[in-house]
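Complex 332.
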Amino acid sequence: MIVEEGKIKILAPNVNLRGPGKIEGVFYNRAMVFNRDTSIFLLYNLRVKNALDALAATGVRGIRFAKELGIETTINDKDSRAVEIIKKNLELNNVEARVTNRDANALMIEEKYNYVDIDPFGTPVPFIDSAILSGKIIGITATDTATLGGRNRRIVRRYLADVCAPTELVHEIGIRVLLGYIGRMAVRFDLGIEPIISIWQGHFYRVYVRIKKGVSKANATLEKIKNTEFGGPIWVGEMHDFSFLKNSKIPEWLPTKKILEKYLSIWKNEKFFLFYHLPSISSELRVSTPSPRQIIENLKEQGYEAYPTQFSPQGIRSNAPVDVLKDIIKSA
Ligand code: SAM
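Predicted structure with S-adenosylmethionine bound:
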């Protein structure tokens, strides 16, 4: 089957149209177009020179890097059937890239890249160490979202964390477990991390992180990883690089441009540690839930910062104390 995505066409022996998850053989996952578009968005704005698509399957992501952005790209998969298809797909798109048939960890330990992409089935844990050592910037997908959010407290320990958060907060806690884990793995090598974009989209988490050299960067990273009232260790720093987001542009041709526009408008202001979930606070106060937009306006009128969040349409992020927020909800 031939599918089109962005500026390329892909020969895909197996197509998954529903959601993530492993099906037999080399497959193309339609549900991950937005995930791939975010990497095109990032690399387009950062003007990255070379990249590794370490777990490539059909090669769709790496071929898009090469074709849409002209980036010098290495496309890798340990499955030889995938490698055959990647080569055919490069021909189909009349574009060149280096193709390797290696274990991703072995390759990343040997070679350095401006950007490394890790897009595994399920947990990225087995690839994090070598990605940190290989890339100046790394993009990491995790589809074990329930685990990361602490729904399974035994398995979340694979991230060397133990968290237990109220349902409304689990998605943000999960992404902070992931960032905290990447940060702690980095500091072992005297490296630090700086998140550029952190994304939750139901099926997956996706984080883009700069790897910074030096003890001072490692120490600064450790200071942002703590235990909290919801357990830990988790990342308690900012999840996004606001100056990057403010100056970034969305390439016109992206298939999920509209969705990305919505996310970008939220990410640009998605500050502070955790958010207030208005239905929970309203139910505690025994009043009906006001519209988040109205509460954001009211908080701003009182001189506080207040913004929406990607983690809940009913959530708001603010530097206002909870008592101020409660007074505003009661009088709304
Ligand atoms: N990035 C692809 C995309 O956007 O369509 C999807 C990648 S798929 C989820 C994961 C791929 O990783 C599979 O093709 C699998 O063969 C490959 N893989 C798994 N373990 C690997 C390893 N240790 N080294 C290299 N490739 C590996």
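The mean pLDDT is 95.
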